[in-house]
Design a protein that fits this description.
The complex is a heterodimer. Chain A is mainly β. Chain A is 9% helix and 55% strand. The two termini of chain B are 34 Å apart. The chains are: A mainly beta, B alpha/beta.
Chain lengths: 316, 265
């Protein structure tokens, strides 16, 4: 199979997310870095954005620099896919957004045929002053519970910058997944972190640790974690916010729906304030679907399972 | 209006959760097919509880509910909805991520008609489809917008019986003025309406009314008769709300005044 058809197959596997893959195909002119397993298949730079990839033993190091003042409307595409059923892929992204830049990174992590496949990531993102940086990571792990995925990211968000993290793993089966993201927010920065995950059977296990450390005065953050566990699946959400500087504001919101025997949802919000002017809050709800929502849909003719599925599908 | 009984509530009683008291006590009334029937009464009288019992959300400890002659007392909410009963909530639920289009269309049986029904229903409740179809039924909608979307979802479904639980609460005055039009359009679509309200200006659209007081039926009859009784019972010498239907208010006021003069009250 050619490299081009390999990457198309990986992208096609993401269509369950209602994704328009034409924006990401190799023929698309936008900036991109595309992998198949541990080989770099496409690197495409545009003015103001440097993309460099280096292959190592079991993966790659990806260096991305958004140069000072660069404002780029189209997303920068990172495709970390594996068609193989087994193997180990290790990715080390090092991303720098220089001052006054504005970009969106769209990472696709797709392992459509995974049976005994491990994907590890150890990433660092440095966001300068007065930036807008959106990082979207969309996962698809196939239908055979065969992936083990462990991404770890450290993000540093500079003065007066906005950082948004959107992590979605709601289609297909999860397999085993352990995510850790630590975000350090400096003066006047704003953080918006969203995680959505769906465990569908007893072989699906997802652990998420999403942490924001508000280190600069007036930094603000919100973490929203939404998950569902059905058919014996397991989801654990660990939302952390620390206010370590004056006038910082943070909130952790966790909503998890659990359905079917053997399914488990856990949420541990951990909030900490070390300055009397901080305002850090959390909210968590776990359990069955809200009865008002269920009744509303059942009164239109859906049965309980149909109504629950619709609520979960739309929440995620 | 047909002379057939569509819904018959027979002697239903519902206990409070702690079973210390009856929220409603041996309630009976009939709703005629094609009519607008109002359940009137003060706050806490048990009006909404009756609506929820008809929908199958609350289960009476005694009594029966018949719909088109069938005893539906033991049916689930879904089964009742499939037979043609639905309810528009006083405080409608909000849903993360669910689009207005999907919510309004969820009750439309013929999936080929969803688009047409959703657009029609939004226009009936005076919401612009170009604006609202893109939105979500979440916390970003105002209370009034959410109520109108609730009404639209009922209209799109085309049930035989619509229970409107204080549909007017939270609506702005402009929409209140158009309520008559909305009710008439629902009637034109051959739906029977059961209005639960404590506003006389809304209840006056009804053909028949039931007055509930402390969980019991005080009277069944025409709306005008029921309002006279309501005012007497509440010790009112005039109807409080004069916003929309002064002419009607004045006619009821006149009856109350005359009956007071004749020492009937």
């Amino acid at each position: 199979m050619s490299e081009r058809s390999d990457s198309s197959e990986i992208l096609n596997s993401l269509e369950k997310y209602d994704l328009d893959i034409s924006d990401y195909l190799p023929s698309h002119s936008g900036p991109k870095l595309v992998l198949n397993f541990n080989k770099i298949t496409t690197v495409s730079e545009v003015e103001g954005i440097i993309l460099k990839g280096r292959e190592i033993e079991n993966g790659i190091i990806a260096d991305i620099v958004i140069k000072e003042g660069t404002v780029f409307e189209d997303p920068i595409h990172l495709c970390f896919g594996v068609n193989k059923e087994t193997g180990l892929q290790e990715i080390f992204p090092r991303i720098i957004a220089e001052d006054n830049s504005s970009v969106t990174l769209q990472a696709h992590c797709s392992f459509p045929n995974a049976k005994n496949l491990t994907h590890k990531m150890f990433g660092h993102i440095y966001v300068g002053k007065n930036c807008k940086f959106v990082y979207n990571e969309t996962h698809y792990h196939g239908e055979q519970n065969g992936a083990t995925v462990a991404p770890v990211s450290y993000v540093y968000v500079g003065e007066n910058s906005y950082f948004e993290n959107n992590f979605f793993l709601t289609q297909g089966t999860i397999g085993r997944m352990k995510i850790q993201i630590d975000i350090y927010a400096f003066k006047d920065s704003r953080i918006n972190s969203n995680v959505k995950a769906f465990g569908k059977n007893s072989l699906d296990s997802i652990h998420v640790r999403d942490a924001v450390f508000l280190e600069g005065e007036n930094a603000r953050s919100i973490i929203k974690m939404k998950a569902a566990a059905i058919g014996g699946g397991e989801v654990m959400m660990f939302g952390i916010t620390e206010g370590n500087a004056a006038n910082t504001t943070g909130h952790v919101d966790c909503t998890e729906i659990v359905k079917d025997r053997g399914s488990r949802c856990r949420a541990i919000p951990l909030i900490r304030a070390t300055d009397e002017s901080c305002h850090i809050t959390h909210e968590a709800s776990l359990g069955k679907v809200d009865s008002a929502q269920l009744n509303a849909l059942m009164a239109r003719g859906l049965d309980e399972d149909e109504a629950t599925d619709l609520i979960i599908k739309n929440m995620l | 209006m047909s002379s057939d009984v569509l819904l018959s509530v027979k002697d239903i009683s519902i206990f409070s959760e702690d079973r210390q008291c009856n929220i409603v006590d041996t309630i009976s009334f009939d709703v005629m097919e094609g009519s607008i029937h109002s359940i009137i009464g003060p706050n806490g009288a048990g009006k909404s509880t009756i609506g929820y019992a008809i929908m199958g959300i609350y289960h009476p400890c005694s009594g029966k509910i018949f719909f088109e002659g069938e005893n539906i007392s033991d049916l689930t909410i879904t089964e009742r909805a499939k037979r043609g009963i639905t309810l528009a909530w006083q405080t409608p639920a909000r849903f993360d991520g669910l689009s207005v289009y999907d919510y309004i269309g969820v009750g439309v049986k013929d999936k080929n008609l969803i688009e047409q029904r959703v657009a029609e229903a939004l226009e009936i409740v005076n919401l612009n489809p170009d604006i609202y179809l893109k939105r979500k039924v979440d916390a970003n909608l105002s209370g009034g917008e959410r109520k109108r979307i609730e009404l639209a979802s009922v209209i799109a479904m085309r049930p035989k019986l619509v229970i409107l639980d204080e549909a007017e609460a939270g609506m702005d005055l402009i929409v209140l003025e158009s309520f008559m039009d909305i009710f008439n359009k629902i009637k034109e679509l051959r739906m029977t309406i059961l209005i639960i309200t404590h506003r006389e200006d809304i209840g006056m659209v009804s053909d028949n009314s039931t007055l509930i007081w402390d969980g019991k039926v005080l009277a069944n009859g025409s709306f005008r008769d029921i309002m006279v009784l309501y005012c007497q019972k509440a010790g009112l010498k005039k109807i409080c709300s004069r916003t929309l239907f002064n002419q009607f208010d004045e006619s009821v006021d006149k009856i109350i005044e005359e009956e007071t003069r004749e020492n009937k009250i």
